[in-house]
Amino acid sequence: MTNLKTELRNLRLMVLGILISKTGSVAFTFAVGLYVLGITGSAMKLGISVLLFTIPRLIFTPLAGVVADKFDRKYIVVFGDIISGLIVLSGLLMPKPSITHIYIIVVLLSSVQSFFEVAFQAAQPDIVSDEKLFQLNAYSQSAMSATNIFGFVLSGILLSFGIRIVILVNGVSFILSGISEWFIDFSFNKKTDVSQSVEKQSFADQYKTSLAVFKEQPIISYVVSLSLAANFFIALSVSVPLVYMMNRILGISEMYLGIINAILSVGIFVSSMVLAKRKVHSLYKNSFLFAVIVGMTLVFMGLPFVLNTTYTVPVAIAILALLHFIAGYSVPAFTVPIITLEQQLIPPELRGKVFGLINLASEIGRPIAILISSLLIPTVLPMHILMFSGIMIVLITVIIMTSSIVKTAFAENQMKQTTDTIE
């Protein structure tokens, strides 16, 4: 009974920490962009602020993986949030934060969060039992989607009172999140003493050992490749082409763009809550089916407007809102089983470095995809980019998920979880 109480407390505190810190973080990130644009009127300065969120992650994520495997992940998670809060609150030291000060906060915050996020991801299998890990990942997804819904709304409300209020709320939210995370038992399901298992190796040798995991367990290479490919083609089609199509070609206003994006987050939230509440009988079929649906929603976002561009704006909004909800619902149903499988298969002592490599690949792929789509827009219809990206996701999903290695690994892992639950 005590173990069950501890596990439930861990799950609730982890989700609460996500809700508190990420809502403030989303509000802060959005507000910073508006603040920089409002002060300077420069799209370039706005672009620099976005870039400064990304560059530290590219630099520090590999190191963050080593740190997460060498030191106690609880301290990295807790103090990562508390230090992030203090960094943000430093913006209150000036009556009116300058653009330079905002840039410094963004760089420092992104750097610290690089270490926090890898340790947070690597620690999740240690705070709940193996059979509850899927539920934890589902609740985490629902919390993240909720922060996207409320964070943007909160940002607009807080920014009306000034950037200092945004800074205060985000700084306090990080610190409160860190305090709540302190009461999580990070050793509840720990199978290995991570700090003792990491040998005295050079930085390069540690990553060679981590890369060997992909060779020793090909299933990890397969599912990571699928996730990265899906992320790349989603970024290629959604970040620029979809927005351009909706706003410039279909004439949908910024207000309705925001509503449509909120509907995407609602779909993610609903799906994550459904996954957390019910038992998924076949993780393999779930991931396979919904990965295909994600690809098909991209195809159908472009197809109607290739065949007929004379839809009225309300009809176009209705079509896209429905497809955004379907896409949002499908994403967790596709990704949560894969994330859970990765967490269970990767050795605990290498989890930080392996997730560091995965996150780094994702961080590199996204800006490349956005750059490619931006260069294509003048010569290629955004609808065609959407359809191409959707077809590629479907094809890659079919190729990877029909592999005997993937089928066997999913079946063996589910059988093991079933046996553990019975025992």
**Mean of residue pLDDT values:** 82
Kindly report the name of the CATH homologous superfamily of the largest domain. MFS general substrate transporter like domains
The N- and C-terminal alpha carbons lie at a distance of 16 Å
Largest sheet features:
none
Question: If helices are DSSP runs of H or I spanning 4 or more residues, what is the number of helices?
Answer: 15
Uncertain parts: none
Strand content: under 5%
Helix content: over 70%
Tally of domains: 2
Which shape, going by the Cα principal axes?
globular
Architecture of the largest domain, according to CATH? Up-down Bundle
CATH fold-type name of the largest domain? Growth Hormone, Chain: A
What class would the helix/strand composition place it in?
A: mainly alpha
Radius of gyration: 22 Å
Order of helices and strands: HHHHHHHHHHHHHHH
Q: Mind telling me the CATH class of the largest domain?
A: Mainly Alpha
Number of beta strands = 0
Structural commentary:
The protein is about 85% helix and about 0% strand. The chain has 15 helices and no strands. It folds into two domains: about 1-190, Growth Hormone, Chain: A; about 210-420, MFS general substrate transporter like domains (Growth Hormone, Chain: A). The two termini are about 15 Å apart. The chain is mainly α.
